[in-house]
Amino acid sequence: MDMKAASHAALEIRNIMKDIEQSSREILTILQKIHNDGGLQEVSGICKQARNLLVPIQEGYAKLSEKIAHQMYYRYHDHWRFGTQRLTFLVALIIYLETGKLANREEVAVALGIKTERESGFHLDLEDYLSGLLQLSSELSRLAVNSVTYGDYARPLELSRFVTELNAGFRLLNLKNDNLRKRFDALKYDVKKIEEVVYDLTIRGLKPHSAPTPQGDKDI
């Protein structure tokens, strides 16, 4: 591919990503409602609204898949890397809110309308998937704090279990990517932050005797 063709391809990719990222911002805005008083009582409707906005995102990735030849994926990867990581986080948050489970790579890829295997063409890169999961912990630590503010004292215990198990899963991985290692350090901070919320509930006598158990297993 000559320089002129490469420049044209990059421009087309940027234009497609603008539309994808616009939908991504709209999904984030919708999901932020969970932090409002009573937001978690409306979680079904919130997740439905968010999922509806995944349709134009799937269409955007379909356009990228048509334009990017299999062997050119990593040449242009930086154009969609961070947008895909953010969308992985958003899909993982939706799935957690719906099921209490950790979204696996295939579930995220299906939600975005892309593949999981490099050999299949346009796919969800493993490191992008892991980066998205690490962003999830920060949002859940914020939710733990806000839950207490609105009198939901059982929620932080559930979130603590989930994020602690997420942390344990990442500890089993040999993270060679510098950005992933830095994000993993932030995950450890999120674990500590939620533990402090639970401890505060305990010493104030507000910790429920029996907290709800998250649904399903949480495998990375």
TrEMBL record:
Domain of life according to the entry: Eukaryota
Places the protein is found: Cytoplasm; Nucleus
Coiled-coil features, chain-numbered ranges: none
GO annotation, biological process: RNA metabolic process
Keywords, ordered alphabetically: Cytoplasm, DNA-binding, Endonuclease, Hydrolase, Magnesium, Metal-binding, Nuclease, Nucleus, RNA-binding
A Pfam family matched in the record: Translin
Subunit structure: Ring-shaped heterooctamer of six TSN and two TSNAX subunits, DNA/RNA binding occurs inside the ring.
Function recorded in the entry: DNA-binding protein that specifically recognizes consensus sequences at the breakpoint junctions in chromosomal translocations, mostly involving immunoglobulin (Ig)/T-cell receptor gene segments. Seems to recognize single-stranded DNA ends generated by staggered breaks occurring at recombination hot spots. Exhibits both single-stranded and double-stranded endoribonuclease activity. May act as an activator of RNA-induced silencing complex (RISC) by facilitating endonucleolytic cleavage of the siRNA passenger strand.
Protein name: Translin
